[in-house]
C-alpha cells in the first residue's frame, strides 16, 4: 500500500512551523494527519478558515474536539 509521508517541521514552509508547536503543546506529539495536511498549504489554510467559521458557534473546546477525532481514528484502527 502506498503511503504518503508527512511533512516534518524542518521541511515545512516558515508560515506553517508555528502549528507544529501548537499541536505538540496540545497533544505532546506530532500527529501524522496534521503532517500530511501541511504538505499542501492551500488545503491547510482552507481547513483553518473552515474551522474558524464553524468555530464561532462552538460550544465545546477545540482540545476536546481534536481529542474526539483522535479517539475515533483509533477506534477504526487508523495506523497513525
What topology does this entry show?
Blueprint: H1 17-27, H2 32-37, H3 41-55, H4 62-75
In short:
With 80 residues, the chain is mostly helical. The chain has helices spanning 17-27, 32-37, 41-55, 62-75. The radius of gyration is 13 Å and the shape is globular.
- DSSP, total strands: 0
End-to-end C-alpha gap? 14 Å
Q: Please tell me the overall pLDDT.
A: 83
Strand content: under 5%
String of helices and strands? HHHH
Instruction: Give the oligomeric state of the chains in this entry, treating copies of one chain as homo and distinct chains as hetero.
Output: single chain
Number of helices: 4
Kindly state the percentage of residues in helix.
55-70%
Class inferred from helices and paired strands: mainly alpha
Low-pLDDT residue spans: none
The description of the largest β-sheet is: none
Outline: globular
Rg = 13 Å
Q: How would you portray this structure in words?
A:
With 80 residues, this protein is mainly alpha-helical. Helix content is 57%, strand content 0%. It has four helices and no strands. The longest helix is centred in the middle third of the chain and has 15 residues, at 41-55. It starts with 16 loop residues before the first helix and ends in a 5-residue tail after the last helix.
